[in-house]
Predict the structure.
Amino acid sequence: MDKRYRHLLRATLAALPLACAAVLSSCAFDDDVAECPDPNAPATVRVSVSAGEPGDLNGTRAGDDIYADEQEFMHTLRLYIVNDNDNGVRRTVLDLSPDLTNNTLAQTGDLTNYETGELTLAPGTYTIYAFANVDGYNGEFGTESGQRAITQMTMTEFLDDCFAIDQQVRDGDLAEYRIYNPAENLDFANDMYIPMSAKKTITVTPNTSDISIGLDRLVSKVKITVPDNQYISTSSTIQFSGYAENVPLLGADGGYGSAELYGDRTTTTAEMPFNQVGQEVSLYVNETPDGDPFTVTLSTGKSGNGDVSAYVAKTQRTDIPRNSIYPLSLTFPNFTPQFEWQSWDAAIGAVPVEVVVKENNYIVKIASGNTFKFTVNGVNGTNSQLQSATWAHGDVTNQITDIQIGNYAIGGAISAGVPAGTLIPLTVTVNWTADYTDATGSTETRNFTRTYNVTIETIDIWDTEYKPYTRGSWCAYRLTPEVLNMFIKR
């Protein structure tokens, strides 16, 4: 391009903003004002509501699942527009809640987007509220700390009351309303879909045409996988616990809600089948603010000798935002408890006897009539520290007497009449801390809990072996059994 034209074009472009400003400012002094926009003219708008894909706590999607699953979208919808400039009083201007009973996607909770028809709004500031799938849920509002009486009310009653046309919107109650344990009440087969909510403040001008608002699910999804089938069986189950029992309707985002609205963190999911290697199990949990870690319990369904019947671990994460995906992959570091197995022949003065234990199976062989004591003294592992060891048993009334449990140990006496070959199941739940190096090479101290199966197998008293003789103690041993024939004396 010729330099003269280049400089001319640059000067022309630089003058454009000034020229536009002059044209606009001239409207105030022009006799022909019909061509200038009226700042008080109403706007014709459409409102769109979206229940798109959830967020992800790791910043990237979990695997290939970048969208929510089926039936995790809209089934019903309540949509309200509130005028923020009505002489300082907030009132419901429009109730745009649609009837979705004839919408095929909505009937199965699969409606991802909804758009209203055209409507007219005067310029000003508005707040839009949207609630999906909330009908049928129960909750309450008010807080004891705020000296507002706690009032129970269904979501249907509450929203009908809060957003009555031409009535003042009940901001204080909206800020304190919480739903009772929505994750537990989800039941897609009975029209209890995931509750969602949204709140957005907008400014309407004559040029406004489209208004959009995105819904947040009040629950989140935990996705758990296990890579190796040696730790599970056909009857394995998994649970996730320690999350909040309630969820604020509009979220604890500074202006709305507080930790008090979430209630106690004592909620636990139902036991879910977890019996296929590589299987991914999805659990719905309530949004939970920062606090304690969550607990994952894998019950293996294995009750055989030496099997681990349960694995328990605490998460590093201590909060779960709403509308999120939380992936968890279970690993099983190799730790072994340090057991001390002891038994005595009570019949002849508590003589120590050898305890036969099947390696790695915890099958402990003890003669009927003998006393015993099993103790967990520690756990093998890098920098491991034993925290607790709790023993338990079922109904052993006719098998063990004088049971004593405490100080990481269990003790008692095998009843003399118990036949050889009897299996007596016990369990011990061991909790410890130890250094653990994850797949990334990062090492940190973590907490571990596992429940082990220990089985007492009774043997014949003649199969008992005594511990080696040591100086200062008397040597106890058994004589060779003899069969003595008795004859009648003449």
